Amino acid sequence: METNCTWSLISETSDLQLFYRNAENDSLKPCTYKHMKTGCHLDDIDFAAGVQFFGFSGSTKSSQIQNLFIIEPRNSVKSEPPKLDIKREGEHIFLNCSTPDFLRYNCWKYKFTYSKCDEKEQIVETEGNVFSLEYNPACKYMFQAQTVFSDYCGTRRESEMSEPVFFGMLLTFWTLITL
Questions:
Q1: Could you tell me if 34 and 114 lie in one domain?
Q2: Diameter of the chain by CA atoms?
Q3: End position of a domain, from candidates 40, 75, 110
Q4: Which of 7, 34, 146, 164 is most buried per CB count within 10 Å?
Q5: CA-CA distance, 36 to 54, in Å (whole number)?
Protein backbone atom coordinates (compact mmCIF):
# COMPACT_ATOMS: atom_id res chain seq x y z
CA MET A 1 0.00 0.00 0.00
CA GLU A 2 1.26 3.47 -0.85
CA THR A 3 1.41 6.02 1.95
CA ASN A 4 2.29 9.70 1.90
CA CYS A 5 4.79 11.04 4.41
CA THR A 6 5.60 14.71 5.00
CA TRP A 7 7.71 16.62 7.49
CA SER A 8 8.73 20.18 8.34
CA LEU A 9 12.30 21.44 8.42
CA ILE A 10 13.38 23.14 11.64
CA SER A 11 16.72 24.33 10.31
CA GLU A 12 18.38 24.49 6.91
CA THR A 13 19.45 21.00 5.87
CA SER A 14 20.20 20.83 2.18
CA ASP A 15 20.49 17.05 1.93
CA LEU A 16 17.89 15.72 4.40
CA GLN A 17 16.57 12.30 3.41
CA LEU A 18 14.16 9.81 4.98
CA PHE A 19 14.84 6.05 4.95
CA TYR A 20 12.51 3.29 6.11
CA ARG A 21 12.19 -0.47 6.55
CA ASN A 22 9.41 -2.83 7.61
CA ALA A 23 11.42 -5.10 9.87
CA GLU A 24 14.58 -4.75 11.89
CA ASN A 25 16.58 -7.03 9.59
CA ASP A 26 15.31 -5.48 6.29
CA SER A 27 17.57 -3.10 4.40
CA LEU A 28 16.80 0.61 4.50
CA LYS A 29 14.93 2.03 1.49
CA PRO A 30 15.10 5.72 0.55
CA CYS A 31 11.82 7.57 0.63
CA THR A 32 11.73 9.88 -2.39
CA TYR A 33 9.29 11.73 -4.59
CA LYS A 34 10.66 13.68 -7.54
CA HIS A 35 12.59 16.67 -6.16
CA MET A 36 10.45 17.19 -3.06
CA LYS A 37 12.58 17.73 0.07
CA THR A 38 9.86 17.54 2.72
CA GLY A 39 7.73 14.63 1.58
CA CYS A 40 7.64 11.31 -0.22
CA HIS A 41 5.65 8.17 -0.97
CA LEU A 42 6.25 5.01 1.03
CA ASP A 43 5.34 2.20 -1.35
CA ASP A 44 5.12 -0.86 0.85
CA ILE A 45 4.32 0.03 4.46
CA ASP A 46 2.95 -2.99 6.31
CA PHE A 47 0.11 -1.62 8.46
CA ALA A 48 -0.48 -5.02 10.01
CA ALA A 49 3.11 -5.19 11.26
CA GLY A 50 3.82 -4.19 14.80
CA VAL A 51 6.39 -1.49 14.06
CA GLN A 52 7.97 0.47 11.21
CA PHE A 53 11.55 1.76 11.31
CA PHE A 54 12.46 5.25 10.05
CA GLY A 55 15.69 7.20 9.85
CA PHE A 56 16.49 10.77 8.85
CA SER A 57 19.94 11.58 7.59
CA GLY A 58 21.42 14.89 6.49
CA SER A 59 23.80 17.66 7.40
CA THR A 60 23.74 21.29 8.38
CA LYS A 61 26.59 23.75 7.90
CA SER A 62 28.47 22.43 10.91
CA SER A 63 27.22 18.94 11.81
CA GLN A 64 25.85 15.61 10.62
CA ILE A 65 22.22 14.75 11.53
CA GLN A 66 20.96 11.22 12.07
CA ASN A 67 17.69 10.39 13.81
CA LEU A 68 16.22 6.91 14.11
CA PHE A 69 12.72 6.25 15.35
CA ILE A 70 10.12 3.51 15.42
CA ILE A 71 6.37 3.96 14.95
CA GLU A 72 3.38 1.67 14.97
CA PRO A 73 1.67 2.34 11.61
CA ARG A 74 -1.72 1.22 12.86
CA ASN A 75 -1.64 4.16 15.31
CA SER A 76 -1.07 6.66 12.50
CA VAL A 77 -3.94 5.75 10.16
CA LYS A 78 -6.20 8.48 8.78
CA SER A 79 -8.03 7.69 5.57
CA GLU A 80 -9.31 9.98 2.86
CA PRO A 81 -12.99 11.02 3.07
CA PRO A 82 -15.17 8.24 1.65
CA LYS A 83 -17.21 8.43 -1.53
CA LEU A 84 -20.92 8.34 -0.78
CA ASP A 85 -23.49 6.59 -3.00
CA ILE A 86 -27.22 7.15 -2.40
CA LYS A 87 -30.10 5.09 -3.79
CA ARG A 88 -33.81 5.06 -3.15
CA GLU A 89 -35.58 1.73 -3.08
CA GLY A 90 -39.29 1.86 -2.32
CA GLU A 91 -39.84 3.78 0.89
CA HIS A 92 -36.19 3.75 2.00
CA ILE A 93 -32.98 5.59 1.16
CA PHE A 94 -29.79 3.51 1.23
CA LEU A 95 -26.41 5.12 1.82
CA ASN A 96 -23.28 3.23 0.88
CA CYS A 97 -19.82 4.68 1.46
CA SER A 98 -16.53 3.46 0.07
CA THR A 99 -14.27 1.37 2.28
CA PRO A 100 -10.57 2.24 2.60
CA ASP A 101 -8.47 -0.21 0.60
CA PHE A 102 -6.10 -1.19 3.36
CA LEU A 103 -6.25 -3.26 6.51
CA ARG A 104 -9.08 -5.55 7.42
CA TYR A 105 -12.69 -4.51 6.90
CA ASN A 106 -13.37 -4.95 10.64
CA CYS A 107 -10.88 -2.15 11.41
CA TRP A 108 -13.39 0.39 10.09
CA LYS A 109 -16.55 1.98 11.38
CA TYR A 110 -18.61 4.56 9.54
CA LYS A 111 -20.33 7.78 10.56
CA PHE A 112 -23.30 8.99 8.56
CA THR A 113 -24.51 12.54 9.10
CA TYR A 114 -27.82 13.62 7.63
CA SER A 115 -30.56 16.19 7.84
CA LYS A 116 -34.02 16.12 6.32
CA CYS A 117 -36.71 18.77 5.94
CA ASP A 118 -34.29 21.37 7.36
CA GLU A 119 -34.25 19.58 10.74
CA LYS A 120 -31.19 19.39 12.98
CA GLU A 121 -28.41 17.06 11.75
CA GLN A 122 -28.42 13.48 12.99
CA ILE A 123 -25.24 11.40 13.36
CA VAL A 124 -25.26 7.61 13.24
CA GLU A 125 -22.18 5.41 13.70
CA THR A 126 -22.34 1.92 12.17
CA GLU A 127 -20.15 -1.17 11.98
CA GLY A 128 -20.83 -1.56 8.26
CA ASN A 129 -20.57 0.87 5.36
CA VAL A 130 -24.32 0.82 4.61
CA PHE A 131 -27.06 2.80 6.35
CA SER A 132 -30.75 3.18 5.52
CA LEU A 133 -33.63 5.36 6.62
CA GLU A 134 -37.26 5.94 5.67
CA TYR A 135 -37.81 8.22 2.72
CA ASN A 136 -40.19 11.17 2.95
CA PRO A 137 -40.89 12.45 -0.58
CA ALA A 138 -41.75 15.92 0.78
CA CYS A 139 -38.24 16.41 2.22
CA LYS A 140 -34.90 17.47 0.88
CA TYR A 141 -32.00 15.50 2.42
CA MET A 142 -28.34 16.31 2.99
CA PHE A 143 -25.91 13.44 3.61
CA GLN A 144 -22.23 13.18 4.54
CA ALA A 145 -20.09 10.27 5.65
CA GLN A 146 -16.72 9.60 7.21
CA THR A 147 -14.63 6.55 7.97
CA VAL A 148 -13.46 5.83 11.50
CA PHE A 149 -10.37 3.71 12.10
CA SER A 150 -11.50 1.52 14.98
CA ASP A 151 -9.67 1.35 18.29
CA TYR A 152 -9.99 -2.43 17.81
CA CYS A 153 -7.07 -2.21 15.35
CA GLY A 154 -5.11 0.83 16.59
CA THR A 155 -5.64 4.40 17.68
CA ARG A 156 -9.13 5.66 16.79
CA ARG A 157 -8.95 8.29 14.04
CA GLU A 158 -11.65 9.81 11.88
CA SER A 159 -11.36 10.88 8.25
CA GLU A 160 -12.56 14.28 7.16
CA MET A 161 -16.25 14.40 6.25
CA SER A 162 -17.18 13.65 2.65
CA GLU A 163 -18.59 16.42 0.51
CA PRO A 164 -22.30 16.96 1.18
CA VAL A 165 -24.67 15.11 -1.14
CA PHE A 166 -28.22 16.42 -1.54
CA PHE A 167 -31.20 14.22 -2.34
CA GLY A 168 -34.95 14.64 -2.50
CA MET A 169 -37.98 16.09 -4.18
CA LEU A 170 -37.40 19.74 -3.32
CA LEU A 171 -33.95 19.61 -4.93
CA THR A 172 -35.42 18.04 -8.08
CA PHE A 173 -38.18 20.69 -8.19
CA TRP A 174 -35.70 23.60 -8.01
CA THR A 175 -33.43 21.95 -10.56
CA LEU A 176 -36.34 21.76 -13.04
CA ILE A 177 -37.24 25.42 -12.50
CA THR A 178 -33.67 26.62 -13.11
CA LEU A 179 -33.35 24.59 -16.32
A1: no
A2: 72
A3: 75
A4: 146
A5: 18
